Known about the structure:
about 425 residues, two-stranded antiparallel sheet, single chain, nine-stranded antiparallel beta sheet
Amino acid sequence: MKKVNHKHLFVAKMTHLASVLYAGAILASCIAISACSTGGSSTSTNPQTQQIQTMLESTANYYLSLESAASYKPSGIQLNASCPNMNPVTWVHGTFGHNNLQLVTQNSIFQLGSITKSFTSVVMLQLLSEKNLSLDSNIKSLAPLLAARYPQWELITIRQLLNMTSGIPDYSEQDAFTTDAFNNPTAFMPLSQVLGYAESLPFKFAPGTSYNYSNTNYTLLEEAIIEISGHPFESEINQRIINKLGLTNLHYPPNQPTAVANPAQIVYGYAGAGWAPYAGTEILPPYSLSYANAGGAIISNANDLNSYIHTLFTPNGLLSPSQLSALISPVSMTTGQPLNYPLAPGERAFGLGVMAMNLSNSFANLPLIYLYTGETFGFLGMYAYDANTGISMSMTINSSSSRITMNQLIIDLNNLVEICKQ
């Protein structure tokens, strides 16, 4: 069996930016201003909205045509663009699957992968504030029962788990995990089983001395949240975020998505070439997302994703100013050491389940953006948020092809800043 390598399940990818070429239109599409009717088109006469619609149509066509291999090729996409003081503009395009010709609508549901990590960070930051606890407290002091089960990790701090400086190896890189998840796609995978794939592995480095992206960190955070709050993790996510914001098409499934979302809204997925042994597999419901847990199980449409992102980065939306400052506090994705804002041109940083980058060396409009790509077996979710203006882009697509990167979404965000100024 081929190892998954860097293509971690529900991994976050940071890719360098490149110029791209647009491709011709394919499949069925629709556009919307706040709402969308599949197969129809908007009659807006607002010139800004028309420019955004044209941009999103080209981007949808581009992303849907990137992958030439039929078994990896996406069939459906959702894009959302948002300017301050304007209704968001949504473009949806395509079908649920290659053989399922049900049209994708604005309410269709895709997997978001590691974008889930910011939800976990919000819950933890709120809990710590409510209980007057510190990010720099260790597992042993905050969750003694969890520490007793995993004494090798008891001195890791909550901050080190959140910002990927713990040194704990990633369970999703282990062959045993990949084999079990592939052979039993509908089976519930308990957190203890997930952590079991990594618990006997040595640290990659001494905690706090470097950076390594590890999904194990967020499985431990789920266990800690359960112990600190006394509630199931999904209850905390629902109460603190999903229900509060009225996100009717965004869900946290502790097991199968069909148990929390309308099965008729769930799009099929297509695993890319780097996802052995999943490569070329069509991901059909019902399947379990328990393997992804607090690091990658959220499902959503692009509209609810964009609504969440705006609230996340707005002071007193989900987090107080001090909590938001902690969320975006950067460490180097090379050394794991703390950084200061403004970031150097081209520099990328990891916060608490969020990423930041200074792209001013390529795009004058983007000196600081928050961005993330979440990836699962057959799906990608992406967002890019301009910190200076609150302008944002989000995308969901049903393929985990390595050809699909954030490059074009960043180009669109830069263009969107100009459009929104008009």
